[in-house]
Amino acid sequence: MDVSIGTIWEAVCRALPDAVAVTEPERDTTYREFDERAARLAAALEEAGVRAGDTVACYLYNGATYLETVFAAFKVGAVPVNANYRYTGEELTELLTDADATALVFSGALADRVTHAAGHVHTLKLLVRAGEPPAHGPAGPPAPELEELLASYEPRPPRRRPGSDRLFMYTGGTTGKPKGVVWQLSDLLHCIPILRQAGVTELPRSLDEAVSTAVAAHRERRAPTTMPVVPLMHATGLFNTMGTLLVGGRAVTARQGGLDPEHVWRTLAERGVDTLLVAGNAVCRPLVDELLRAEQAGKPYDLRPLKGILSSGTALDDRLKQALHERADVTVLDAIASSEGGLFALAVTSSVADLPARFHPVPAAKVIGADDRFVEPGSDEIGNLAYCGPMPLGYYKDTDKTARTFRTVAGVRYAIPGDLARIEADGAIRFLGRGSGVINTGGEKVHAQEVENALLTHPAVTDCAVVGVPDETWGERVAAVVAVPDTSTVTGAELRDWVRRTLAGYKVPRSVVLTNTLPRTPTGKLEIAW
């Protein structure tokens, strides 16, 4: 089916105009409104000079505006780009420059951070502010407010777009600093797990069939009502929410701000959310803790709507799965995946009886060992997880990293982003972690070198090493060993504050160990004692 996801959305919107597409705390948006608002924004993008193949960045919190911006980009054949709302102004500038961004839609609460990008990213043709800036502090650069902009444009007429249109998913991944993973939309359709929940086991072969599938799923109540607890700037949140709208479902978003477990559970009960999108222990542990607290207070939450939890990013602890299964009739789908391709493996549990959970590879996944040999089950050999199904074209403007991650083995192209695993005798996968110097903390990817570079700008620091250390909640936490000739001149807290000036909070080391020197080999490599 050679059509864009945006073209499918347009057709679904025509078929289900009065169904609710997106529910926010203060507003429901129907499919008709979803299409119209995106079409008005698409008209504004075109008038500003945004053309097919140009990039449109989303520096936004979860909400209808994020999805409308993606839809508007699809309508003109432009490329949506995710920008982490935790980024500082300098980090945002770096990403937008790398992406050659032509337009930026940003949440008003983030306006002050956009000022640096507005002055330094020379490819930008349009800035759009969604919501008011903070009452106190810098107002950010001049930019039209979204609602006023939409009111000044007529909806752009729909025009069919091909499946070769693209989306960028910027990720720290397992292969270095954040970079744009380039997906063709026709390939991305094959990699959205939530489609299975709506009974879509095979992708439609035509646009008419796609619409019929969505209408049937909606009318037969198979279309999910999904709540992305994970941010839409992450692949798990965005891709599965996109899939929800492909099959006539409803996306429910929480109020802006940090994770509020009480708000999540109350919203689930009030809005009839049947599927939660999470990212491993960092998201799920606070949710479970709140369930237990409410029970102990004699006011348990109503979990009857909940039927599924989809987790990706980091593995979900069996103890959390057990707590969920004991309190709800829920199926937990735990996925090993990456923005570079996959799913690699799934662990599916529907009750306590299914625990301990075990990951089993999907048919397109392999474990590739030394000399590009396929690892045999039960061999105890460790190799790299690899995926040969529909996958990205590569990394934007980085042919070297593309060649290293997307390799041809035995005549077949594989995505091999660096996750280590072995295959048990019964075919189950044992995931052994990341094979490169990237720290995976609660689903966020932190490149150690970037944090080291920030520490080394401090005048008292002569050397440092940043590593990930095991953490029960976050999977890994960022830690730093810092060489300071006189350790009395600086504190760990001071160094953490120093890093926070230029990097997002999740990149700041949670622990800092001070030492006089770090042991190095003659070639400059860090000596590590095992």
Question: Could you outline the blueprint of secondary structure elements for this entry?
Answer:
Blueprint: H1 5-15, E1 20-24, E2 27-30, H2 31-47, E3 55-59, H3 64-76, E4 79-82, H4 89-99, E5 101-107, H5 111-120, E6 126-130, H6 146-151, E7 166-171, E8 179-184, H7 185-188, H8 207-219, E9 225-228, H9 235-246, E10 250-252, H10 261-271, E11 275-278, H11 280-296, E12 308-312, H12 318-327, E13 331-338, E14 341-349, E15 360-361, E16 365-368, E17 383-387, E18 394-395, H13 399-405, E19 406-409, E20 412-415, E21 419-423, E22 429-434, E23 438-441, E24 444-447, H14 448-456, E25 463-471, E26 475-483, H15 492-500, E27 511-515
Parallel strand pairs: 1-10, 3-4, 3-5, 5-6, 9-10, 9-11, 11-12, 12-13, 26-27
Antiparallel strand pairs: 1-2, 7-8, 8-18, 13-14, 14-15, 16-17, 17-21, 19-20, 21-22, 23-24, 25-26
Helix pairs in contact: 1-2, 1-3, 1-8, 2-3, 4-5, 10-11
TL;DR?
This protein is α/β, with parallel strands linked by helices and 530 residues long.
Write structural notes for this entry.
Among the domains are: 362-434, Luciferase, Domain 3 (Luciferase, domain 3, Roll), CATH 2.30.38.10; 438-515, GMP Synthetase, Chain A, domain 3, CATH 3.30.300. The termini are far apart. By secondary structure, the chain is an alpha/beta fold. A hairpin with a 2-residue loop joins strand 1 (20-24) and strand 2 (27-30). The protein is built from 15 helices and 27 strands.
